Amino acid sequence: MYIAGRESDNKLRMKKTLLLILSHFVSLYLIAQDVKVKRVIDGDTFEAEDGEKIRLLGVDCPELAHFGKPAEYFGKESTEFSRQNLEGKTVKLVKDSLNKDRDKYGRLLRYVYINKQDFSWLLIEEGYGYALTTYPISKRDEYERAQNDAREGRRGVWNKHLINKNTDANARLYWLNMRNNVRHNEGCKYFQNTKDGKLTPDKTGIACNICGG
Q1: pTM of the model as a whole
Q2: Burial group, residue 63, by CB count within 10 angstroms (0-12, 13-18, 19+)
Q3: Where in the chain are all domains bearing CATH 2.40.50.90?
Q4: Which of the listed ranges 37-41, 137-141, 172-176 does the model predict with the highest average pLDDT?
Q5: Known catalytic residues?
Q6: Are strands 206-207 and 182-184 parallel, antiparallel or unpaired?
Q7: What CATH fold (topology level) applies to the domain 31-158?
Q8: What φ, ψ does residue 211 adopt, rounded to 5°?
């Protein structure tokens, strides 16, 4: 049965939805900021020419050796990938209204675009980092899809046979669940099979009750 009022309501809701989407992209454009990258600190962090440190939103890259801790699996490769693509380049920073402006270390939390390419997405898609969705971000679904693609293609951090140069090829690797800090060994059903986790050569975190970590 044709109901004029219902059709009118549907059109009104559609218009409101389109306006919200449009206003979201306009707001992103208005708060975007261009900066030149002075140096890359690691895969997901860099310093701009003005001294401001920027932490990429939505991605967690393996760490380099620091504070007496060894480099994490694929840390050097991830850092080098960011260095080759970002250092000396002008990039666009975009804030996410769902997230904070800065992290606890005082770094700006931003999406980073280079040549209109979302660099967080690229890091995840190519296997140089993990989707970090423990904090609210507007690109959660997009980044999780990119991570699934990288996992299925066994690229980068999802290929345990591509051992970091600083890691003993015979060393055991563990999967650390970043949500609950539980560690899983390679024989565990949760190895590389939880959200917000990463490979590590260290016995950090809490041992899994099933596999013993």
Answers
A1: 0.70
A2: buried
A3: 31-158
A4: 37-41
A5: 55, 63, 107
A6: parallel
A7: OB fold (Dihydrolipoamide Acetyltransferase, E2P) (2.40.50)
A8: -100, -15
